[in-house]
Design goal:
Length: about 220
């Protein structure tokens, strides 16, 4: 059975069009904004929360009905209109222009699906059922949220700060890989979550120094 290709898109500064102005569209807009997208909302009317975002200049609002010309320069499209015919036209126009499109709750009109997401700072865990059961994806997300608390995001950020230094100071690829594995594994995580920062950093430094000595 063929599967969808999982990918994380960099939307920073890219134009994302949301067709629809209701509560569902509002949720999609919030996610896009959190990813740094340049969001344009196209709808004859807006829900209150979208009105606030437009008033604050956080989104561009086009008070029009959909027309294919609105796809000009768009990187990604989400269709959240309550009108099925509008959603169908949006999907077909995007398909013909090779623009990624998601029509909310209508899998046959999607070229990509938005996963259910557990977000912990720089760490994100995405769950997708390829559109077959969003409710099951939400259930799994809730379970994972209980397993992976904020400390996992904090630890990921900590490792990210160490990474450039290790790449710079440990030149041997095998030693570097082994060091990354140790720091990101049970040893590093236990040090991070159980020790106060000064002692934690001291022991992490000892681990790095051990690999630096192996290089000599």
């Amino acid at each position: 059975m063929e599967q969808f290709y999982p990918v994380y898109l960099d939307l920073r500064g890219r134009k994302a069009l949301v067709v629809g102005g209701g509560k569902v569209a509002g949720r999609k807009v919030e996610r896009l904004l959190s990813c740094g997208a340049q969001v344009v909302v196209l709808s004859p009317a807006l829900a209150p929360m979208l009105q606030e975002l437009a008033g604050a200049g956080k989104i561009e609002y086009l008070q029009h009905s959909y027309d294919p010309c609105h796809l000009e320069g768009v990187f990604l499209v989400i269709g959240a209109s309550s009108d099925h015919e509008t959603n169908r036209r949006v999907a077909e126009d995007c398909f013909s222009r090779n623009i990624p499109v998601n029509i909310v709750d209508i899998p046959p009109l999607c070229s990509f699906y938005v996963p259910s997401l557990v977000s912990r700072g720089p760490l994100s865990i995405a769950i997708s059922t390829a559109g077959k059961s969003p409710a099951f994806a939400r259930l799994l997300r809730e379970q994972l949220e209980g397993l992976y608390g904020p400390i996992y995001g904090e630890f990921t950020d900590y490792l990210g700060k160490l990474r450039p230094r290790i790449l710079r100071e440990i030149s041997d690829p095998q030693q570097r890989k082994a060091l990354f594995t140790e720091l990101a594994g049970e040893t590093g995580f236990n040090l991070y979550k159980t020790l106060p920062p000064p002692e934690r950093d001291r022991q992490i430094e000892e681990i790095i120094e051990r690999y630096r000595e192996r290089r000599q």
